[in-house]
């Protein structure tokens, strides 16, 4: 099957507008006769459900949480990008487009990224109209702050809880349509298979997680909006329930899976403390606006801190290595996430880590507190040479900007980050890879769409901070409602899709067979036993740094672990009731297949780019070395029954508007 990305002709600045001018439309009177299933109700799915229902379609929305308000989008803390240039510092649609392509190390599709930059300006207006309480300056205008990989302030935010506030906006829009009967909401339901009839996605098989009932649901199109697959590493910043199942089931039904090895390691996570942990907690990238990252300059100081003989505040300024400012003077602490993560790993590997495990660096706000304190003292005509006064004034400013984040850190670590630097270390966060989609956001299965983090399309090999919320809302509010209409225009006379078709029966039997296997398996180990083993293989051999030997070993080890899992997993409880162990077993089964494809993808890509760092392909300074001549393409994998046998399809990446150069933040 040839990969047709369906990118329209014309200049980059007019593609999207011209495309919308010429697509087929669905008459408002016909939309009520068309059903759309949306799986996942985070920012992408929630905004899509609300918008499609507002347009008149009959929407069925599914989430495994007890409410769409619990979607993992609420965990996004720092902000949402938009090219509105409110700060007047030179931002533009083109600059957001350029920063995103460069930040993704020239491995994103130009047309999609430019469209994202275009519609970003509408997202903020939409959210303000919904009442989202975005931060404002003294005069009442919306405020902006900077994020990594940019030299402008384009990130709109709501303190340190931007994702939550944006999700409440989308949820309120959904609720209005639920009340009108245009959205039928299926809480506590999980999609376990995709149903294809005559080559088109026509429904799903879902399990009611409360009763265990297996249900058939039909529609004229299916939209996957279930987020990323970072939990293949077991420990990640994702919610424990985050999984790959819906996307993977679509993959096994014919949707190509693109660039699975493109996984983001976020540099500002609270460090791992031991095997007892089930997830990790992220400290927002927004903290890098004011926090300075450092380690001791001397090995003996790092050793003394690890042994508890010294505190970070004991070290004089000249004894601290602000290594990001040293290595990347143009961007300093605001380099992109992949660059900051590798730099932290390099320092810790060299012995300069500062916690008991040796895997932590400092994020220090002392300089910001002093700077803000003196500024406030001048504003209020107070003594800027009074250290206590300056500290108190500065702390209040920092608290107003980041207070809930500081409180969260204090609750978890039991150290006051106002008085002693935070400790941070890289951790798995976002997945740039995902289901392959064309310009319309349709997968290689006709009628099956994929939006938000679940698809691969907008971030290349590395996502810039504050762009996840932007993509989710762009896809849901402003892209999918146009592109899906072009497809559904041919279904106005189709009528309801029967769930009695043999394809629904086959898919339901497939699900029941899998559930029966797990419930009747006489194993001896829990699901978490296998998930943790998978996570350690992934982190140690497919994590921040990868090499040929480790990737080959990982593929063999994951295949063996998968075989052991099916033989020896033990699932307690019953299938006809609320059973979280069964839920986890079904999800981990998919992770065990994804993990092997992930390693295969990383092995085939003989280059370093963005979050994919092959140790064999780095410069003398330890920077990533791309191979544009051989790997400037999207790697889209076709399922063939076993991850190792997946077939590679290539979508060439053509850059007509941006010159491909070696990425530099120095």
TrEMBL record:
Residues 35-469 form the FAD-dependent oxidoreductase 2 FAD-binding domain. One of its GO terms (cellular component) is plasma membrane. It is an enzyme of class 1 (oxidoreductase). It comes from the Bacteria. Residues 531-665 form the Fumarate reductase/succinate dehydrogenase flavoprotein-like C-terminal domain. The active site is at residue 337. InterPro entries: FAD-dep_OxRdtase_2_FAD-bd, FAD/NAD-bd_sf, Fum_R/Succ_DH_flav-like_C_sf, Fum_Rdtase/Succ_DH_flav-like_C, SdhA/FrdA/AprA, Succ_DH/Fum_Rdt_flav_su, Succ_DH/fumarate_Rdtase_cat_sf. GO terms for molecular function: electron transfer activity; flavin adenine dinucleotide binding; succinate dehydrogenase (quinone) activity. Its cofactor is FAD. Its main location: membrane. It is a peripheral membrane protein. It catalyses: a quinone + succinate = fumarate + a quinol. It is found in: Cell membrane. Keywords: Cell membrane, Electron transport, FAD, Flavoprotein, Membrane, Oxidoreductase, Transport. Its EC number is 1.3.5.1. Belongs to the FAD-dependent oxidoreductase 2 family. FRD/SDH subfamily. This is succinate dehydrogenase. It comes from Paenimyroides ummariense.
